[in-house]
Amino acid sequence: MNATGAVFLDRDGTIIEEVGYLDRPERVELYPYSIEAIRALNRAGLTLVMVTNQSGVARGFFSEEVVHAVHRHIADLLAAGGAWLDAYYYCPHHPDGRVAEYATACQCRKPERGMVDRAVRELGIDPARSFTVGDRWLDVALAQRVGARGVLVRTGYGLTEEQKPKPDVRADAVVNNLAEAAGWILRRATRT
Ligand SMILES: [Mg+2]
Ligand SMILES: [Zn+2]
Question: Which residues are catalytic?
């Protein structure tokens, strides 16, 4: 079996509204197009993997259980619209964290590639046929590190990021939102 392509989706500012440190499921607000965009990617046979930095855990703002509850809530909202993510990965670490067990320079905090490597192991995906979508340069930098294609969306911090280019990070596309990112990807994804 050939390894399939994946879309690595950032969470905050990409699938849901950026609200700072999201510490309660009730604060989750999907963008109005998120369900339809994700459903279109589902139908194309792409593996969809959330990859989100949640340093609020290391900073002591909320627990991993809260992160799980937020992700269950997102999964419920998506399911009501016939959409799903195949995996929900997050990094709870930060080198400056206050909670000792998470205060580490890990290999999973984007733009480090740990969450992509986990998807390769657990889901059998091929990074070279994959994409990242996110509102920060670090989401694009992740794509560059693993040989995927990186799409920057202008939601969340995206517009601000676009205005502060990074010399060593180049997006394959800059689009307005996740709906446009899905369209861009669907025109390029190779079917298996
Ligand atoms: Mg984000
Ligand atoms: Zn980590």
Answer: 10, 12
